[in-house]
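To close the section, here is one more complete example, presented without commentary so you can practise reading it yourself. The ligand is pyridoxal-5'-phosphate.
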Amino acid sequence: MQELQRQTYPDAAAARAELEAYWLPFSGNRQFKDNPRIIESAEGCYYTDAHGRRILDVMSGLWCCGFGHNRPEIAEAVNRQLRELDYAPAFQFAHPLAFEVANRVKALTPAGLDYVFFTNSGSESVETALKMAKAYWRLAGQPQKTRLVGRVKGYHGVNFGGTSVGGIEPNRAPYGELAAAEHLPATLLPENAFSRGQPEHGAELADALEDLVTEHGAETIAAVIVEPFSGSAGCIVPPLGYLDRLRAICDAHDILLIFDEVITGFGRTGHAFGAHAFGVTPDIMTLAKALTNGSVPMGAVVAKESIYETFMNADTPEYMVEFPHGYTYSGHPVACAAALAALDIFENERMAERAKNLAPHFENALHGLRGTKHITDIRNFGLAGALQIDAIPGEPARRPFEIGTACWNRGLYVRWGGDTVQLGPAMIVEPEQIDEAVSILADVIPTVA
Ligand SMILES: Cc1ncc(COP(=O)(O)O)c(C=O)c1O
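Output:
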């Protein structure tokens, strides 16, 4: 890597200094700045790095560019929009595209999820959903229903509420006291290792919600938030029957069920949403990432009519704000233009169907790695997959980091997170590209210490 760095910057010290000011998110800054991985352009399933190398991207960026990089349709829509209307106030005013995107999202989400609130990221969508749930119960005459429930190994972004309901310990530990939240147990069971798609065992883990009801009383619980499958913790797929059981317990006790579909939305599961894939409809859904194919930051929260109506029927004058929440850039015109172009691609090119058709090849290729040194589990659903890597005691993230960087040096981009290596190829990926990625992984993984 040192040699690669020198090719771009003849003076190594000057090159290092140039990298100093930028504090990278979720990155080992010290390691990165000594070994920078800089991406300059993209097309389809490939990145080009600062050395002109073509890198096969089997992570859709960060799960967001599922329809392939640099779609010209999106670039043109964004360009056109910037010349027409750069910004319109999001509070008390609106522009036509926001309604269009809301109607398109409503049409795609399961029946009953009909009201769309815009944000700028997955983290903001989660905060919005959690605040919406709490405010809903106050308006519905049950102000004591405030308790939030997440799940161990869940990831719901990085803002305060999302970190609190989140269950990836290294993301919580640095901050000490967070907002109050309960956590269901993770659904990762050793007896499910190497399951293909949904694992067989563990539906009863949903009953932990019943235990929370017994302990605290349903009258104190506002909402449960889960990812249909956990992405950031390494594709943890819900056991058969688990989500149905969670839904049933929520129904029995008047608890709102929130699906965080930031990764699972827009085709990743082989269906439009995880709700369709697993046959369970939540009360609130959080979206982001592929809504604009990752091109412009945008997120959304989709709520059931009964929730929206409760806000609208509040006993306040009509000129009053019903939900004191929103972002300067909620429904930004440029993001909306990108979303409309991305939604056209999603529908016209039948991205969910493509993902569904590619999923068996992806599954077979990934599970072909079974038996490779260091791999203790392989999980997959739709076009998402993860390899569980045997942890070095006290350093679970080390091998995945070494595998990920070695892949990068071989021209393959995968994500390393915790003790896992993750794959989420674009829905336009060719089977041969999946095979190439798996073959590089098969070469690289046994070589790490
Ligand atoms: C399920 C889930 N929720 C929320 C987020 C946070 O999204 P963002 O990084 O856009 O804030 C992510 C990001 O990966 C996610 O996977």
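Once you have examined the tokens, check your reading against these statements. The two ends are 19 Å apart (CA to CA). DSSP finds 17 helices and 15 strands in the chain.
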